[in-house]
Structure formats: C-alpha cells, structure tokens
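Hey,
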Amino acid sequence: MPRFPYHRFKEFIAPGADRLKILHLILDELDLACTTVDIAGSSHVFLGAAEVRVTLVAHYDRVSGSPGANDNSAAVFHLIEAAMQLRETNGWRIIFTDGEELSLGMGARDQGAYGLAKALRDAGRGDGQFFIFDACGSGDTLIISTTADHVIKNEEGFQIARLRRETRSLRHRALETARNLMMDKVLLAPVPFSDDLGFLRAGITAQTITVLPSKEAASLAVNLHKQGFADSLIKREAQSPRLKHLIPATWKSLNSPRDLPERLTPQHFRMVVDFACALCKD
C-alpha cells in the first residue's frame, strides 16, 4: 500500500470508525482546505475551487458491518491523492459525499447525492462535468458506466433529452481521457448504482467510473447480452436467481464483510489517480 495518503487507510476501514472525522484529519494533515456542508441529514465534504469545470465525487459512507475497503474507501483515498497532485491546477472540485448507501426499498431520491445535487443546482453551482468514482480499488480494467442509459431508456421529455445529450458528452470525455492516457483495458457497461442516480433524479448528469479485474471484465462483457442481466447489475431488488451468479465477484463482495483490504490491488491505484487528474486538465 502506498504511504500517503494511505497511511490512515486501516484506521478508516476499522469497525466503528468515525470516517468523517478521519477524513478531516487526513485533509488537515495534507494541508488540503475543505468545507463540510450538511444537507438533509448528510454531511458532504468539499475541497477545491468554487467555480469549476470538473467535479470529482466519491462517497465516504459504508454499509454497517462492512469494512468498505473497496466500497468506497479506495476511491476516497484515490481522490485525496489526486487533490495533492492538482494543487497547482485550476478549475476542479472534489466532493466526498455521505448517504450513498441505501437500505432495501429506498430509491435515488433518498440518497444524500440527491439533496446535494438539488442544492448545487439551486445555488447555480451544478454546471460543469461530474465524475463519480466508486469501487475503484480492485482491478486493472476501467469500467465506464452506462447505468444512466438503462435508468432513463423508457422515459421521455425535454429534460430527459438533455440528460441523454449530457450523458453522451461525459462518456465521450471519459473515453477520450482514457485514450490520451493510452489505457488499453476499458469497458462500457452498466454498473451497480452509485451517486449518479441521485444526481440524475435531481437533474444533473454524472458519469460513474469503477474498475474490475480483467478476467471479471471479460466475463461481464459476454454476459451483458443476457436478457435482464443489466437490471440485475444495477439494483439488488431486480437480481434474478438465474443471473445472480453471473455478477462479477468483486461486485458481489460489496456491502458485505468480504469487502476487505486483501481484495484490493494497490499496484493499479496509480491508474485511477492518473485518470482522475487527467479529467481535470484540458
């Protein structure tokens, strides 16, 4: 495991950890000024500029009983490392969100990201490009989410048409960035829902980025053609017993006691950090 900022990673994933307090401690140690904003019961941490072109997002909350090493501690630390590298770069913002994890029966409008996105939109701070990093600690293949397409595929209206256009633009930006970095392991695929759904329902498009081991990504690409598989990936309520066994092992371990640091691949952390930084540079 790299040293900084990962020196507090074990503390961050420990049972009962006050993750918000530890996050503030890390940012203070690294002299990264931040602001915490409480919205509808969720505490979101902002760092970077107020006027931005690109916003990088990672949720810091986790499911009770899970260490949350990959979901979503790894991405939080990746974005902290990205912030360290972006100190002299203008036009970026990072938001560490709260309230991404939901109980069964809850929906996108119950997410902390929904209230956050509404507040950003109402304050005139919802412009620019939003990229969400979730479960980015295990694997060497970049997965660029197409979940938004599946969520709004049967919906109509002026706003839906706008969201589709903006989704295509964000996806193009992500693919272009991957090409510029000469990343040869990239897959477009639906992924388990993240903060992108809360943003989407508040009228802001956001592109989710995750990673998988190459073998799991290859199997995912094959299984995407099976009817109903995309819905099984996106939300637990739709998981079919017939298809559940096809879900990548990395994603099966999320929100469970199996989401342990031993499943992480630190040798590939640099890939995610470089990608995050490249998104913030023209």
